[in-house]
Predict the structure.
Amino acid sequence: MSLGFESLALRMDLQLKDRVVLVVGGTGFIGSEIAARLRGEGATVITASRSGSGDLSMDASDDDSVTAGISTVIERYGRLDAVVITAAPSARTLDPSRNGDPAQVEQAFEGKAMSFLRVANAVVPAMRAAGFGRIVGISGQNAFMTGNIAGSIRNAALIVAAKNLADELAGSGVNVTTVSPGIVAENPSTTVEPGKPGESSPAQIADLVAFLVSPIAAVSGESIAVGHRMRGVVSF
């Protein structure tokens, strides 16, 4: 008799009980689902948002705000086991008529790749000292596609930054990974068109992230597509 994924998940202890996890962008469409999933595993979850609607006010585009936010979490909880960075506007907010406009490309790069790097760098010292940490960035399959320069660059840069950081931290106990969804929808289509990525739901993304921040996940330096990775394209 085979076990379905849900049955298997119920039998798997992700060892997240009482782990402290910061979800940057934790009140957004994807971030809120990640936060809920991690809380369901028993983690202590702090949601950070620029708007102040989360547990912590943090602007990932501002060095001082990030430093202050990370310091607050560590002072309050005494540790920081994992951080998930999903603080970036949806690709759908990019103006298609300005895909190659340097101003929009720069804004998109800053809003996603640099926000990831800023937060990741801020949490590394505490994680190094503890000998354990998980850093997960939410990128996107635009990184593997042409047709949207701003979208491609911001996601590809995040993946490259994460891989460099993972290599720098190799052997330290701090793992760095990225997750790349295609289109995200509450009820994702099961159809995958040639040359396109598959759709995924916030819940499916959250399931993958929950595993990656878990102590049982021996994964670092990887960029993992969620849904179906670009149909008809082979990449290594």
